[in-house]
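thread from #wetlab-drylab

HS: before we spend reagent money on co-crystallization trials with adenosine-5'-triphosphate, can we at least see a predicted complex? here's what I'd submit
DV: go for it
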Amino acid sequence: MKRIGVFTSGGDAPGMNACIRAAVRTALSRGLEVFGIYRGYQGMIEGDIVPMNSGDVSNIIQRGGTILKTARSDDFRTEQGRRKAAENLRKYGIEGLVCIGGDGSFKGASILYEEHGIKTIGAPGTIDNDLYGTDSTIGYDTAVNTVVQAVDKLRDTAASHNRLFIVEVMGRDAGFIALRSGIACGAEAILVPETPTYIDALIQKLRDGWNRQKHSSIVIVAEGDESGGAYEVAKAVKQNFDRYDVRVTVLGHIQRGGSPSAYDRVLASEMGYAAVEGLLDGKFNAMVGRQGREIVFVPFEKAIKHNKELNKHLLQIAATLSI
Ligand code: ATP
């Protein structure tokens, strides 16, 4: 393999730049030529491809977002679109790809291999941490820290005004951000899609707390929780327990932005490095993962299809401590 391409795809996540930097510099140090593909699969189809050198990735390790931009490409979902993408890659002599993205991006890469034989290694770049086979995805730690900083601020005002804040965090299908940030913030309740939500029990818990002189509370809700999200929870609480001044905060896209944490920078560096080493070692259709202290390669099929479970121990801790 002499030439590889690097791209980011799907939702952006803090640490993607650190991963791009690691992949580019590792490839250069191994004597490869590297091309940056802008705007994910859409840029691949449109031929938005440029050579990259070491200087192109200077001063980006600390920056959120992705210098290569990212996109969701409907064209790539079509056979014609993928053919065009493959033609462009061949035009540049690109034989292997490093894809920094989530499950959809890896699915697209698998199809590109099946149809056109182009080999891809994935690095999991998503704040949701919902990929099987890695303890953490690039961006997850930063997103959790962003939530914690925001909720700490909300707690100050909650305590001053006897308020209940219902805070909605990202996680359409997964409660990883909610669970970890909820424990870190000492939330009174954490509602996640993976476990049933009993609103009556939540209200009783808040009532019990109030009766014990606990006059400010924080409830963290993952956006995909069956309750329907923070506004629905707030409505139900207001209807059934009117002592609190109930407020809703939806943290939204601030969770995707910001400078990556040290943890994410190191993880992204390890993963970008391993992705290129893996490609050179003949690995493809696989995602780089971190399991404990080990860097591993997880077949795309497993990373995408196996459901990653929430840590039961953390769920237990959250239930025990949030009284
Ligand atoms: P995130 O987890 O942040 O949402 P993602 O990689 O899962 O990231 P998606 O939007 O699901 O984000 O996928 C990114 C792109 O991958 C899509 O816009 C599309 O171009 C391509 N893709 C996803 N699924 C398929 C598929 N089944 N066939 C072909 N291409 C696909």
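DV: Residues 140-161 form the longest helix (22 residues).
HS: ok that's useful, forwarding to the group
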